[in-house]
Amino acid sequence: MTQAIGLYSYWIVILLMMAGLYIMIARYNLVKKIIGLGLFQTSIFYLYITMGKVDGGTAPILVEDATLLYSNPVPHVLILTAIVVGVATSAVALALIVRIYESFDTIEEDEIKAIEAQEPDS
Amino acid sequence: MTEQLPALQILITMMAAPLCVLVRNARVSWAIALLANAFACWVAWQLLQQVQTTGVIRYALGGWAAPSGIEYYIDTMNAAVLLLVSGISTLSLLYAYKSVSKAVPMAKHYLFYSAWLLCVTGLMGIVITGDAFNVFVFLEVSSLATYMLISFGDDRRALTASFRYLVLGSVGASFILIGIGFLYAATGSLNMVDLAERIPDSESQRAVLVAFSFITIGVLIKAAVFPLHAWLPNAYTFAPIAVTAFLAGTATKVSLYVLLRFFFSIFGEAYSFGQLFLNTVLLPAAIAGFVLMSLVAIFQTDLRRMLAYSSVAQIGYIVAGFALASQAGLTAGIVHIVNHAMVKTALFMAVGCIIYRVGHAHRPSLDSLFKHMPFTCVAFIISGLGLIGVPLTVGFVSKFTLIGAAMERGWWILAGLVLISSLMAVVYVGRVVEVMLFRQSRQSGPESSGLSEAPVTMLIPMYVLVAMGLYFGINGSQTLSVAGEAARQLLGGF
Known about the structure:
The structure holds two protein chains of two kinds.
Chain A: H1 2-6, H2 8-26, H3 30-52, H4 73-104, H5 109-117
Chain B: H1 5-23, H2 26-54, E1 57-60, E2 71-74, H3 76-103, H4 109-128, H5 132-151, H6 157-187, H7 192-198, H8 205-222, H9 232-238, H10 241-266, H11 269-275, H12 279-298, H13 303-324, H14 327-358, H15 369-372, H16 374-388, H17 394-408, H18 412-437, H19 456-474, H20 477-491
Antiparallel strand pairs in B: 1-2
Helix pairs in contact in B: 1-2, 1-4, 2-3, 2-4, 3-4, 3-10, 3-14, 3-19, 4-5, 4-10, 5-6, 5-10, 6-8, 6-9, 8-10, 9-10, 9-13, 10-13, 10-14, 12-13, 12-18, 13-14, 13-17, 13-18, 14-16, 14-17, 14-19, 14-20, 16-18, 16-19, 17-18, 17-19
């Protein structure tokens, strides 16, 4: 039991991840879907950061003292890249939503589907 | 020079992308893109030769040695897929010049070609890299560029198709990211060769299992394996047709390559198929894919959508080959990756020619098209026969190998279902051919008067692919020996 509580960081990851997935599936508003996607991706960043943490370790900065315990820096570096990717994804998605709003006059997915259903294929 | 080839493979197209944005000129940016792609194609050809003579190439990027630095790892499989991706991309670019000028406003062309270059860079990066995290980074580079390319389509539904792909694709890529994270937690390494060595000894096998599941689902989404293909039909239908031709031959194929790399090289055949019975998941998905999607393709009236569903079906054949997890099965899967890329790209190019002249790809109103566009129709028919798997075409080579592999395992039902699904392909290709060749124009006939053959720059790349399809169909031993060699290396692990 105490172990399960001690891993609270992972519980937060799971909570965020499921919340993000739920928003993406349950919400029809495209902007809200992207918010869900952002939450989902953030949970993964959190997962990586949690993995890199060493109990009692400090920030991984080069110091003279070789015996100093420090956290694993690799997940931090990786997640820096993933954050950039996440920002780019959101930017592209929001740009697409703007274009969708311009041509469909709505960003509600069910309304867009209704409009699309009336258009023949070619 | 030659020892730097692996880096050049990626760098040239990557540096050409911002160059296109800077010149802001439609023609110049097209020329830059074409040159960069042709160069990448040449590099891939050199790499394939080098791999076949001297064996596996391991290139430490920036001079940082393997486990901690990023490494490019090239064996027969990578080199073949690299050549495929850069080759298809070069031909599609040549084709794009005329085709895209109608679909995309001239002022936006430089952005279009820049996105194209980034997409190719990403796809080649996924294939060449020997670092698991690098796969994710390049996957996102290519995916983001792909969303952009799809949204260039002139129908407004291209936007929603692109958006849906973005949401699903991001979830897929995120799943892969989670999987790689768990792999790192379990082994402390990201280098593929290193991972393969450390996974069996890892103390936390449960983390490895979780990583395996996440990566599998993520890659299956990106590869559009049935039932995770929902993004594909609309994306292929509404993207500019040159982009569809390019993506149909490369994007899903690269994802299938990632699947192979993870299942066979990193986790190992004994783990994925021996311990986890992956074939009990993959095989039903593959069979349902090629039977149901071929059936759905029959009832499509839009040629692009029909070919899109057919693509999902063909991916089913490839995955069925993988699921056999034998030398013959893998060879069949790999050879079908190459063969299907040639056939499907040629088919989409033919449809693009039709759209360029007729203005749409609605099957019932293409009456007696053959009279007006004979070259396009002949290319469509030959490639269509290749899709079905008629002897003397590439489709026959791969289906013959696949059925042989299924029988070798004693899976007669699989062999039978492949044949049934091929018969369905006869129906959906046949319906198009029937309209093109034999149906008389009705009085309300289409804009058939004054209809002429497609421009030469569109016909040439299409016929290059058709000719390659015929050549490798008649002389299948070359592709089969490369695929066989690749399968042997994959089954042997790193």
